[in-house]
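Researcher: I'd like a structural prediction for the single chain below. Treat it as a standalone chain; there are no partners to consider.
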Amino acid sequence: MRLFTGLLAATSLALSMSANAQVSWQNDIHNASGYIDAEGREWLPALVDGIPLGTIGPVDGMSAQCNVLTGWCGNQWNSLHWASMDEVAQLITEVTGQPLMTSSRDGAGAIALELGVGYTTFSGSTSYYTAVTRDSYFVNVDVKTDYRPPYTVTGDGGYDVYHCATKSACNANEFTAWGWVAVPEPSTISLMGCGIAMVLWMRRRRATSLQVK
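Model: Treating it as a single chain, here is the predicted structure.
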């Protein structure tokens, strides 16, 4: 029975991973991939953490939850931070291997950005990721695909950076917000693992001593 349950779980996991990979390649992504940068930040669309698509703009949604000066959004959003343009620039440089530009037609870089941040909207033959920063910038990433399913990526695309002249320019309902959460350092994870191992060892030792008695 245990073997059958294990095989069923493994099969389900494999199928879900396969489906997610296919969806990602089509640039019709509705879940963050959780890209972790060199600074230990896991990038997540703010949509994932509570901004309903099509009902509230990201500026209104984030401003109601976050400190605009620090980007801290509090524990109610799983320690989410609303990123500044400087932080986004670091991300773009790391992912694309090129310094931030106001406008770039780097198709490979655009594909890498969309697959890294996770959530995109799809229109016609173009996949878009448009997100705003807490200091009134928005970055629009576009990736070109074929017109027909499976919407194969052509390799063309790029990104553009704009400064919002007005609040409404950054607050379109189809936009999200650049957000990240801090990833625990390896030393912290190791310490937690040692603690769990110690607890399990003590429980086993206690059980053994009780059996001997």
